[in-house]
Amino acid sequence: MEKTVSFEELDKLAVDLADFSKENDVIALIGDLGTGKTTFIKTLAKELGIEENIKSPTFNYVLEHHGGRLPLYHFDVYRLTDPEEVYEVGYEDYLNNGGLVVIEWADIIESELPKEYIEIKLYYHDDDSRKISVEFIGNSERERELFEYVGFSN
């Protein structure tokens, strides 16, 4: 489902998604530079109860954040040249490690994403809003639950 949202509504989506997410969920964030992927993750982390300063792990590929309701494993795969390179940074170890995996630039590793994941696409719209698309890939029941939880309709 695609819709246009204000930055406040985008923050609310991040808050709702943090509350909705459970162990071993994967959130795939897709969007051009500056569309708000890292800001989205900062809000999500804060809602999880993580007090650390959240930065994009561009030079580390993955940063671990503990101390919240769920551990947050924050990937940024922008610099990968081949999707399978994600395994060199321990990707597989994080997928079923009891935390929430969030991947910036997830379209780069689309072939390596798990069977089920939440996909959020962010698009430029104007200075005060973004177009977003939200789907739960691979599980229509959880997608219905997600849409109900965050107040979207499909």
| Helix and strand element order | EHEHEEHEEEH
Instruction: Compute the CA-based radius of gyration.
Output: 14 Å
The CATH topology name reads Rossmann fold
**What profile does the largest beta sheet have?**
7 strands, mixed
Q: Tell me the count of domains.
A: 1
Please report the total strand number as a whole number.
7
- Broad shape: globular
**Fraction in beta strands:** 25-35%
InterPro entries: P-loop_NTPase, T6A_TsaE
GO molecular function: ATP binding; metal ion binding
Subcellular location: Cytoplasm
Protein name: tRNA threonylcarbamoyladenosine biosynthesis protein TsaE
Task: Give structural notes.
Belongs to the TsaE family. Pfam families: TsaE. The chain has 154 residues and is α/β, with parallel strands linked by helices. It has one domain: 3-Layer(aba) Sandwich (Rossmann fold), CATH 3.40.50. Helix content is 27%, strand content 29%. The protein contains four helices and seven strands; from the N terminus they run E-H-E-H-E-E-H-E-E-E-H. The chain has helices spanning 7-20, 37-48, 91-95, 140-150; strands spanning 2-6, 26-31, 62-65, 72-76, 100-104, 117-126, 129-137. The protein has a seven-stranded mixed β-sheet with strand order 1-7-6-2-5-4-3. Helix 1 packs across helix 2. It is globular. The termini are close together.
Brief synopsis:
The protein is α/β, with parallel strands linked by helices and 154 residues long.
